[in-house]
Amino acid sequence: MRQSILFTKTIKESPKDEKSVNARLLVRAGFVDKLMAGVYSFLPLGFLVLKKIENIIREEMNSIGGQEILMPTLQPRANWMTTGRWEKMDDLFKVKDASRKDFALGATHEEVIVPLVKKFVSSYNDLPLYVYQIQNKFRMELRAKSGLLRGKEFMMKDLYSFHLTEKDLDGYYEKVKAAYIKIFKRVGIWKKTHLTFASGGSFSKYSQEFQTISDGGEDIIFVCKNCNQAINREIFDEVKICPNCRRKDFNEEKAIEVGNIFKLMNKYSKPFDLFVLDEKGRKKEVVMGTYGIGLGRIMGTVVEVCHDEKGIIWPEEIAPFHFHLIQAGQGSKTEKIARRIYDDLQKSGFAVLYDDRKGKSLGEKLVDADLIGVPVRVLLSDRTLNANSAEVKLRSKKETELIRLPALNKFLVSRKLYV
RNA sequence: CGGGGCGUAGUGUAGCGGUAGCACGAGUCUUUUGGGAAGAUUUAGCCCGAGUUCGAAUCUCGGCGCCCCGACCA
């Protein structure tokens, strides 16, 4: 993409109504725009990142047998009455139509997926079944905060699994756990992410969460110094011992909950009477699991974890572009060669942000590049051109390297980091 | 939902009952261009509504909005 036609612009000062690191950097760099507290638009750069995250999640969900669907946001009150959550769920958005009929805006989709599955699943042969969607959720957060980390409207991947037995659910639960670890590795936050025991809410005594250590987080976890297992503060007092290695030595950390996995058992299959017939024709209750990841929250978490005083440092797999090509100087030869590098890289299958803006000093372009945080910067100026070279720099490193132009494309493309 | 703080231009501020001003930013043009350059020029504001007053950015009341702490958070 040519930066001269990118309609968003970087902002020099941090917006005064944003305190969290992720919101300040993402707004300044032009990835997102705040419409109101807890509700953000994703601008071209931010939408690219969101789609990368989405695709990683989609790939990993597909790899464990997930079938993708899309369910409605607008949902009938009756389904929520069936589960009792119309009254019980404090943060459920409720709306009325012109005839005063009630609807819920989907905060989660058990009330839709269970009746849906009931229409198609009737035999034990139909199980297990794994269905997921990636879609906006609405929650009436009374206190939206921390930029993208806690919003009223946010994109979420929600996976639901349906099983004949708890044992089968347990097996799939472990598969999801492994898939989640892959996702957190690919988006670049796994090193700071811990599998964490937490309260099970109303379903079971405990659940498991993935918590990423960050000052921007709102949870407190205790990380086992021996094995990296963590325990959420909400249950620490009753546990006080690592459930994994039985030791009692912990570090206390602030953390962001980036995903959770949950055994629902019959919590929702029961109210909707979701059952199958087994091989002997007997009714068997279906057991379920639910597994969520917030996409915007992942994006915000990545920024919280991957930034420096100059801006964002995107992990390679979710960066909006592979390369940020910067053209400095208005010489027609410089422009011609920059254009050729841009075209060649794109032909090689890479996404390039090409800073072809006129009238900006190199300093301004470099400051913008640091803020936006594309992993690899390629600088072509009159000066580098004199040496028949371009300067290559990783956003995460200080060193720069001059690469001779004839070898440039090969050098950049040969980096195995970008696929 | 409880508590606290705060609303004057995009940002930061001045004004303290009597003509809304400054700086930065942003736009245009020119000269520039190796880490946010310079000149000229332009743009843009009292959160909203009632009340008090001859007169309200300023005082009173109500609303709305934002931030922070807590509670909540399949």
TrEMBL record:
Q: Which organism is it from?
A: Candidatus Wildermuthbacteria bacterium RIFCSPHIGHO2_12_FULL_40_12
GO terms under cellular component: cytosol
Q: Please report the name of this protein according to its UniProt entry.
A: Proline--tRNA ligase
Biological processes per GO annotation:
prolyl-tRNA aminoacylation
EC number in record? 6.1.1.15
One Pfam family recorded for the sequence: HGTP_anticodon
GO MF annotation terms: ATP binding; proline-tRNA ligase activity
- The kind of enzyme this is, by top-level EC class, is ligase
Q: Which PANTHER family does UniProt cross-reference here?
A: MITOCHONDRIAL RIBOSOME PROTEIN L39/PROLYL-TRNA LIGASE FAMILY MEMBER (PTHR42753), PROLINE--TRNA LIGASE (PTHR42753:SF2)
Q: Which reaction does it catalyse?
A: tRNA(Pro) + L-proline + ATP = L-prolyl-tRNA(Pro) + AMP + diphosphate
Keyword Aminoacyl-tRNA synthetase on entry: yes
Asked whether the UniProt record includes Ligase among its keywords, one would answer: yes
> What keywords sit in the KW lines?
Aminoacyl-tRNA synthetase, ATP-binding, Ligase, Nucleotide-binding, Protein biosynthesis
The record's section on InterPro entries has: aa-tRNA-synt_IIb, aa-tRNA-synth_II, aa-tRNA-synth_II/BPL/LPL, Anticodon-bd, Anticodon-bd_dom_sf, Pro-tRNA-ligase_IIa, Pro-tRNA_synthetase
Q: What sequence ranges are listed for the domain Aminoacyl-transfer RNA synthetases class-II family profile?
A: 38-315
